[in-house]
Structure formats: structure tokens, C-alpha cells
Specification:
With 284 residues, this protein is an alpha/beta fold. It contains seven helices and eleven strands. The strands form three sheets. The protein has a seven-stranded mixed beta sheet with strand order 1-3-2-6-11-9-10, with helices on both faces. Strand 9, helix 5 (183-191) and strand 10 (198-200) form a beta-alpha-beta unit. It starts with a helix and ends in a 29-residue tail after the last helix. The structure holds zinc ion. Zinc ion is lined by residues 35-36, 62, 157.
């Protein structure tokens, strides 16, 4: 048995792991991602000069998203890949050369510890924290494709219930670019519910060149779904589990569609490509 001081020493000596891979059936046909799962920082960054309350806000992480991601992965016996660090350190859902990769100001809060992040520091954070997540997602998708079943990707996020004082009416929204294979049927499922308001590319547009789904879905021709759930609905564990159960119910018929498990290239509204009709899989 370790003395308490040895335990502390062991913890502080182990390197910070930026990615969490939850194992699942590689031939299950779906991979879950959570870009903004946690509000913690690697110890060497302390608190980036921010007071504790800022880490409870959406600027630090997507409230409720990790619980929903874990519940969905368990429901579908699917693998999941999550980041373990706050987006205040570096945003995994931005392109590697995006100027907002390391934010100096976020929703009214100045982030003192990022004010000193020069090009070398940004490059270090990209290599140490951002790239391992991209690499892990890529490796899991490769392993899933090797089973012969083409995986779909579901990326789980949450959004604030108001913006600049204006309440947001949607309970759940879907962000997407040009590949309609999952967003359209998923929104149809949500639309069958009496008391649930779905949003189509709300509260923002889903076409962002270089973001996680642009890299792993658009560029690889894999069908995907980016879900945003309003954070006041999922701020408790019970709320997040309830919403994960709703999502699982709506997702099941979507994942059963044959076209969701085919490789097709739609291009992006963001990268200037002209719309291209889906390519039948036998022509690829
Ligand atoms: Zn997010």
C-alpha cells in the first residue's frame, strides 16, 4: 500500500493524457466523438489565470456532453473518443491553422494565460494536445473500416440556453455541411415528437473547414451527425442520461439506413467546392 505522499507523487509524475478512447465493437457502424468533454487543464497550465467559476461555464467545456457520449456509446456498444482537456487550452474542433485555436477572449472573459501564447506555444499545444485527438480518431476509424463495415460518426456537443440575453428555443439541433444522409432523417425523427423543438443548422452553421467533422467525415466521405443539446436540459446526470436515451431512440432508424454506411463525397460549402451529387458506391 502506498503512503499518501507517494500517491501524490505518482499522480504528478504521470504525463497528462489528452485523449480518452472508450473501447467498443469496431463493426457496430458508429463512432461517437466528444470534442469538448471536460473543463480541466493539464497541471502545468494551472488555471490560465481564470477564477474557478469560469470553468463551470460553456467557455470551458460542453456541459453534459461527456455523460451523453458515454451513455450513447454504451447503448450502441460503440467506441468513443473524447478529449480530456478544456477548450480554453486549445480547441479540438478547429482547424490546425485556425486563428481561434487558442482563444484570448471567449464570451466576455479574458483568458490571461493565453495572452502569452505566441506561435511557438500554440504549435506546442497543437502537437501535445490537439494532434493526438485527431490521430486517435483517425486510427479508430481506420480500424472500424478494416472490419468491412463503414462507420458513421456522431459528434456530441451542447449549447447555451441564451445568447446576449435572447433565449434559444431549440432543445436539440443538428449542424451539418452538405452530407444530408444523417441530419435530414434525424431531424425527421425529432419532428415526430410533440414537445421537442429541433433546430436545423442552429444556433450556428455547421460548415467549418478544418473542424473535426470536416477532417474525419467530409474529407473521408463518411456520414456524420453533429448534435447540439441545450445545456440547461443536461446540466444534471439524470438530465444528460434522459437526453441520451431520446437521442438513441431517434438515432437507431438513422443508423439502420444503408446509405449511412457507404463512402460518398459531398464536399463542403466552406471550401468553395461546387455541389456534387452523391456518387454511387460502386463507382468509387
Ligand atoms: Zn462543443
Amino acid at each position: 500500500m502506498f503512503a499518501p505522499s507517494s500517491l501524490v507523487m505518482l499522480q504528478s509524475c504521470s504525463p497528462f493524457q489528452p485523449v480518452l478512447n472508450i473501447a467498443g465493437n469496431l463493426d457496430c457502424g458508429v463512432l461517437f466523438l466528444c470534442d469538448h468533454a471536460r473543463n480541466v487543464l493539464p497541471p502545468e497550465y494551472e488555471d490560465l489565470g481564470l477564477p474557478p467559476e469560469q470553468f463551470q461555464r460553456h467557455i470551458a467545456y460542453d456541459i453534459g456532453a461527456e455523460t451523453m457520449t458515454r451513455a450513447l456509446a454504451a447503448h450502441f456498444h460503440a467506441p468513443a473518443v473524447l478529449t480530456t482537456y478544456s477548450r480554453l487550452l486549445i480547441d479540438p474542433n478547429r482547424g490546425g491553422d485556425d486563428p481561434t485555436l487558442v482563444m484570448r477572449l471567449s464570451d466576455g472573459a479574458i483568458i490571461p494565460g493565453n495572452g502569452y501564447a505566441d506561435a511557438d506555444e500554440v504549435a506546442y499545444r497543437r502537437a501535445r494536445f490537439w494532434q493526438p485527438y485527431r490521430d486517435e480518431v483517425c486510427a479508430v476509424l481506420d480500424a472500424m473500416l478494416a472490419t468491412g463495415v463503414v462507420p458513421a460518426i456522431v459528434s456530441v456537443h451542447s449549447f447555451t440556453n441564451a445568447w446576449k440575453g435572447v433565449p434559444r428555443p431549440w432543445h436539440i439541433t443538428v449542424l451539418w455541411d452538405r452530407d444530408y444522409r444523417m441530419p435530414k432523417p434525424f431531424l425527421q425523427e425529432v419532428g415526430r415528437e410533440q414537445d421537442i423543438i429541433g433546430g436545423d443548422n442552429e444556433p450556428y452553421d455547421g460548415a467549418l473547414v478544418g473542424d473535426t467533422l470536416h477532417e474525419h467525415s467530409t474529407r473521408r466521405g463518411l456520414a456524420s451527425l453533429l448534435l447540439e443539446v441545450r445545456q440547461d436540459l443536461i446540466g444534471t446526470e439524470q438530465g444528460a442520461l434522459t437526453w441520451a436515451a431520446h437521442i438513441a431512440r431517434w438515432l437507431t432508424p438513422v443508423l439502420a439506413r444503408e446509405e449511412v454506411h457507404q463512402i460518398r463525397f459531398f464536399g463542403s460549402r466552406g471550401d468553395g467546392l461546387r455541389y456534387q451529387p452523391p456518387i454511387p458506391v460502386h463507382e468509387i
